[in-house]
Write a structure and sequence with these properties.
The protein is globular and about 45 Å long. The longest helix has 10 residues. It has one domain: Beta Barrel (L,D-transpeptidase catalytic domain-like). Helix content is 8%, strand content 31%. The chain has two helices and twelve strands, in the order βββββββββββαβα. A hairpin with a 4-residue loop joins strand 2 and strand 3. The protein is mainly beta. The strands form two sheets. The chain has an eight-stranded mixed β-barrel. Strands 5-6 form a two-stranded parallel sheet. Pfam families: YkuD. This is L,D-TPase catalytic domain-containing protein. One of its GO terms (molecular function) is transferase activity.
């Protein structure tokens, strides 16, 4: 984890092959770390992986910076660079038949195989397209994702308002056993 990080979102999956997680934001107060509330979350349909590949339906395990945000809706008051665009639209249904509409109303780009400092919509993939990309924190649609992590709408808005680029926000994500290593 980067030494300068003072905001750490920890997303812990139930097990390596499960699409259900919990998310807790930890903030360094100067003397110690303070934990926020535990929030329910979803990750990819097939769980987690140490070597993400495009289309594997697994979320990448690791520590990633959180530098850029965006969405279909107006900026809710984030300090992260925010790209509002109609291109953050998604339709259809998820793996459990749930509607996907509104899932990308707010997103935070997870800096896995992307160029920080660009819109979450930027498709530049420094590790190559076969390693996937477009891994975001986004609004939960009630089911597993293709590789992202999703949180409830209120939790996403709160996270967007809380994250501060001057505090070096990161996400630490993976199944519990992998995160214990």
């Amino acid at each position: 984890m980067p030494r300068r990080s003072r905001q750490v979102l920890v997303v812990t999956g139930r097990d390596r092959n499960a699409p259900v997680s919990t998310a807790v934001l930890y903030e360094h107060t100067g003397a110690d770390w303070r934990a926020g509330p535990s929030r329910p979350a979803h990750n990819a349909l097939s769980g987690w992986t140490d070597h993400h590949r495009e289309g594997d339906l697994r979320s990448p395990i690791g520590v990633y910076t959180l530098t850029d945000a965006g969405g279909r809706l107006p900026d809710p008051g984030t300090r992260l660079p925010y790209d509002r665009s109609a291109d953050f639209s998604v339709g259809g249904t998820g793996f459990a038949g749930e509607p996907l509409a509104g899932s990308f109303d707010y997103v935070i780009a997870i800096d896995y195989n992307r160029r920080p400092g660009t819109s979450p919509l930027d498709r530049t993939r420094p590790l190559g397209p076969e390693r996937g990309g477009g891994i975001w924190l986004h609004i939960d649609h009630g089911g597993p994702t293709r590789g992202c992590v999703s949180l409830g709408a209120d939790a996403m808005k709160e996270l967007l308002r809380t994250l501060d680029p001057d505090r070096g926000p990161v996400v630490v994500m993976g199944d519990a056993a992998s995160l214990e290593r």
